Amino acid sequence: MVSQSIATPRQAAPAHLTQHRTPLPALTGIRFFAAMQVLFFHFGAGFAERHRAPAPIVTFLSNGWSAVTLFFLLSGFILSYTYVGQIEKQGGKRRFWEARFARIYPVYFLSLVLNWPFRGALSPGLAVGVLGMVQAWNPLRVADAGAWNLTAWTLSTEAFFYVLFPFVLPLVEKLSTRALRVFAVVVIFLVVLGHTMSLHYMEPIATLTFIPLPAFRFPEFLTGMILGLLFLRRERRTHHPWKLYTAALTIMAILAFIDGPWISVLFIPLAVLIYELALGGSILARLFGSKSLLLLGGASYAIYLLQLPIRNWLHLFLVGAANDKGGIDAIVSPVVLVIFSIGVFLFWEEPARKWLRNRFKKLEAMRYAKPS
Questions:
Q1: Whose CB has fewer CB within 10 Å in the chain, the N or C terminal residue?
Q2: How far apart, in whole angstroms, are the C-alpha atoms of residue 157 and residue 249?
Q3: Which residue, among 217, 332, 257, 216, has the nearest Cα to 62 in the 3D structure?
Q4: Predicted local confidence at residue 318, as pLDDT
Q5: Is 163 exposed, middle or buried (CB count within 10 Å of its CB: 0-12, 13-18, 19+)?
Q6: Among 39, 42, 43, 41, which Cα is nearest to 327's?
Q7: DSSP 3-state helix, strand, coil percentages of the chain (rounded to 5)?
């Protein structure tokens, strides 16, 4: 009998990592408002205070940094909702990390390129750390988190979450629904009572420990993961819009009237808001899921990361490098930023993500096609 001379694959490449899930459009639309909240915190809070705006407006704008917590919650929720039951598959962890890299690195890298002239003094080691998205991981050099592009510290924190996610999700999945609910309450109160959602309040503690700053923010991401699992296990029920609207009004009131460590109570209505928006069925959920807000929500990542580079360039061209005070650029930059970010989303972020995903798939196919 003639032996086989044609090489055969070791095995078929595994199925795609994620299962089809029903889209949650409202959770995309709300990202735009979160990004704009951070933008107005950076460029509006000081302006409002200098011009003696009413105290609730100043407080509301000054609390804009808290939208980062919404991003962390959303990230945990969406990833858990998307990848539950999938990470354990062969090559699941690697494909998860590939998908995350393709999703976040193109715009992250673009933000560094655009802000290169304004980066300040960077040691070679810190520059490599920023390029590798680990600048926020050093508890002994907390200030390094904002190097090169200040807002990029959150992406370094997210990268920390992504490293842990494939190991944590299978463990959390094993918990019963009742245990998940108890776990959610415990983690939520850890954030609220520990005031961990504020980098400002945690910084003195972080500098005295060997725990990286992202570890202090991980409970926010973990809460989102738990909520995503509970959402998938929910029993069919009629949507109760009053919970969503109560959460939204409570968020507005907290942002306008609470200043200091106890802004951490905001975490509770934020968690409720995300869960109820995911359920859909309300006027607010339909608004956030509209076509225009889906586009703006898609561009929100670029809006968030590019706000400082765009402002720096506009300040340079409209005011001049010698003038360190705000000018017409303070008014123009939000409009230019949103328009520019939509273009980045459509013509850079999405094409780059698809190109990288295709490259990773081809590399995976080549690995599984090697002869035994």
A1: N
A2: 29
A3: 257
A4: 87
A5: middle
A6: 43
A7: 75, 0, 25
Residue pLDDT, tens place only, 26-68: 999 999 999 999 999 998 888 888 888 999 999 999 999 999 9
Q: Tokens in use for 203?
A: 């910084």
| H or E segment to which residue 285 belongs | helix 283-288
C-beta of residue 110 within 8 angstroms of C-beta of residue 128: no
Position 324 scores a pLDDT of 66
Structure tokens at 84: 């539950």
Locus of tokens 């998307």: 82
Amino acid at 50: R
Residue of 315, 165, 143, 145 whose CA lies nearest to 225? 165
Amino acid at 110: L
Tell me the pTM: 0.91
- Residue 319 is predicted with a pLDDT of 83
Tokens 């017409």 belong to residue: 328
Contact yes or no for 188/267 (Cβ under 8 A)? yes
**Domain boundaries, given as residue ranges, for the chain:** 38-360
Count of alpha carbons within 13 angstroms of residue 343, beta-carbon side: 8
Question: How many Å apart are CA 203 and CA 13, to the nearest integer?
Answer: 46
Please write the tens of the pLDDT for every residue from 137-179: 998 888 899 999 999 999 999 999 999 999 999 999 999 999 9
Q: Encode burial over 9-28: b for 16+ CB neighbours within 10 A, e otherwise.
A: eeeeeeeebbeeeeebbbbb
Confidence check: pLDDT of 205 > 60: no
**How many Cβ atoms from other residues are within 10 Å of residue 79's Cβ?**
24
The answer to whether 138 and 157 have CB atoms below 8 angstroms apart is: no
Asked if residue 314 lies in contact with residue 63, where contact means CB atoms within 8 angstroms, the answer is no
Cα separation of 272 and 262, whole Å?
Answer: 18
Q: Residue 140 gets which letter from DSSP?
A: T
If we measure between CA atoms, which residue out of 323, 280, 343 comes closest to residue 30?
280
